[in-house]
Write a structure and sequence with these properties.
The chain is mainly α. It has a domain at 54-152. The protein has helices at 4-53, 58-61, 66-84, 117-125, 145-152, and strands at residues 130-134, 137-141. The chain has a two-stranded antiparallel sheet with strand order 1-2. Helix 1 packs parallel to helix 3 (66-84). The chain starts with a helix and ends with a helix. 5% of the residues are buried. One of its GO terms (cellular component) is nucleus.
Length: 153
């Protein structure tokens, strides 16, 4: 036979256990959110450090999202590899500091990399894309036969 106090005590214990379990779950959720926030912060830091290494002005790299940073980095690496395979290899090293660094009182002028006539002719003959550079970002343009004829004439 149960005494009335025992049933009240059992219900209070059950209520305390439920409350404790809810508090523990809330604590775990908060800890998980904090860990995810920390991971995202570290990830964002690495992305923006990578963006600083791109050959673009800081005004542009500071506005890029993660996907753009990855896309531009891959394009830059492919262009660098492509330039090294040229005959003769293109010298992509520019004079002066990288674009994202500023040196007080100095202006650095980067010399454009040009394609000589023979190399341009080879690109046209084999239907290779032209690479145009705007603000340090390379864009590949596939030359159509109609365009090739105009350039060759």
């Amino acid at each position: 036979m149960q005494l009335p106090n025992e049933s009240i005590f059992a219900s209070e214990v059950s209520h305390l256990q439920t409350t404790l379990l809810r508090n523990l779950q809330a604590l775990r959720k908060e800890k998980s959110r904090d860990a995810a926030r920390s991971r995202r912060g570290k990830e964002n830091f690495e992305f923006y450090e990578l963006a600083k290494l791109l050959p673009l002005p800081a005004a542009i790299t500071s506005q890029l999202d993660k996907a753009s940073i990855i896309r531009l980095t891959i394009s830059y690496l492919k262009m660098r590899d492509f330039a090294n395979q040229g005959d003769p290899p293109w010298n992509l090293r520019m004079e002066g500091p990288p674009p994202n660094t500023s040196v007080k009182g100095s202006l650095s002028v980067q010399k454009p990399v040009t394609i000589n006539g023979e190399l341009r002719q080879r690109f046209l003959e084999f239907g290779m894309p032209f690479f145009m550079v705007f603000y340090g970002v390379a864009h590949a343009l596939k030359a159509s036969p109609k365009y090739q004829q105009r350039v060759l004439d």
